[in-house]
Amino acid sequence: MISIALILLACQQSEKDDTAEQQDTSTQDTAIETEPSSEPSADGQSFLVLEEGDSGGQLALRNTGAWENGEVLREASLEGKLVVKDDYVWLLNRGGSESIAQYDPSDFTQPKAEYVWEGPSSLYPSDVAICEGQVFISQYYGSGILVLDENTFEVLGEINLDAYADDDGFAEASSLVCKKSFLYVSLHRFNQNEDPNAEEPQQIGSLWVMFDPETWEEERQFPDQGYRSLMIDVPGTQVFGSVIEPHIDVTGTTGFWIYDPVADSYNSQIYFAYNDKTIFDTAIGGSRAVHLAYNYADNATWAFCHEYTPGQDQPGYSYERLVSSVITLDSVVMNAQDETWLAFHKDDDPPKHSLMSIDAQTCQPNEDNQEIEHRIIDWLMVD
Question: If you average pLDDT over residues 322-341, what whole number do you get?
Answer without folding.
Answer: 93
